Known about the structure:
- It is a single chain.
- The protein is an alpha/beta fold.
- It has one domain (10-194, 225-249): 3-Layer(aba) Sandwich (Rossmann fold).
- 45% of the residues lie in helices and 15% in strands.
- The protein is built from nine helices and seven strands.
- The protein has helices spanning 19-30, 42-54, 74-86, 110-138, 149-152, 161-179, 200-204, 208-216, 225-236; strands at residues 10-14, 34-39, 62-66, 91-94, 141-146, 184-191, 247-250.
- The protein has a seven-stranded parallel β-sheet, sandwiched between helices.
- Helix 1 runs parallel beside helix 2 (42-54) and helix 1 (19-30) crosses helix 9.
- The protein is globular and about 50 Å long.
- The mean pLDDT is 96.
- Nicotinamide-adenine-dinucleotide binds next to helix 1 and helix 4.
Amino acid sequence: MLLMSHIPRTAVITGAGSGLGRATALRFAAEGCRLLLIGRRERPLLETVTLIERESLNGQRCSIAAVDVAAVGAMEEAIDNFAATYEVIDAVIANAGVNPQRAIAHETEDEHWDETLRVNLTGMHRTVTAALPYMMEQESGAIVTLGSIAGQGAMAARAAYGPSKAGVIQYTRNLAVDYAKYNIRANCVCPGFVITDICRAWVEGLSKSERQAIEDKHPLGLGQPADIANAAWFLCGPDSRWITGVDLSVDGGYQA
Ligand SMILES: NC(=O)c1ccc[n+]([C@@H]2O[C@H](COP(=O)([O-])OP(=O)(O)OC[C@H]3O[C@@H](n4cnc5c(N)ncnc54)[C@H](O)[C@@H]3O)[C@@H](O)[C@H]2O)c1
């Protein structure tokens, strides 16, 4: 089998208006990728494009689409439009995710349960399946999903988020097995704590000692968005061409 041996020239990144998705967009742009940036709202996506342009990082090659990744047909339309220009979809970073409530099982509200699974699982699935036909046709592609340390092992009060991220990890393994014959790889990045919008307010609400306890679980300290972006870039490029189906902890030693 001919393993993918070129660096990605096009990539789709969801949740690209903030946090890890924005950092990933900056990294892929710096490497010369044409990007389709997806997010719920247009303004944060335009801010990401401005940042890319400010760094002279290829901003003119960014497309944006403000869509709900979980909405039926939304990702297909966005990716079809992008592919109409660039033809090839080398990489997909299914990064959009939510954690609307930190609660134990019987205190998890239905709406938060539903939204967590809807975005983290259904949204990821719709993102990936919108790109797969192109990757199958071109017989190459790299998919990176965003799991979490909360999906690799149980964290307190993550009754919806934890299972959703465990599902992301397992979904990615299934992709790896089912699509290897098309030379498509799928890997899951599992971050430890990186202070972004998804957890900032919660972390700020903790006491000093609670915050310290979280930091202490990461032997290398908390991470930066670029640490996740670097892993995503590695997993989409030729240096990882024989790696598929893994959940890669990028967590400063948390899992160790
Ligand atoms: N920051 C961390 O500590 C951490 C740790 C483990 C995993 N993660 C995962 O990393 C990913 C990125 O999170 P982040 O830390 O950058 O947080 P973030 O809140 O800054 O980013 C999440 C992004 O997803 C977008 N999004 C949410 N729902 C969407 C929808 N329905 N349609 C389109 N876009 C949607 C948001 O607008 C936002 O831009 C998430 O999947 C998250 O679960 C983060």
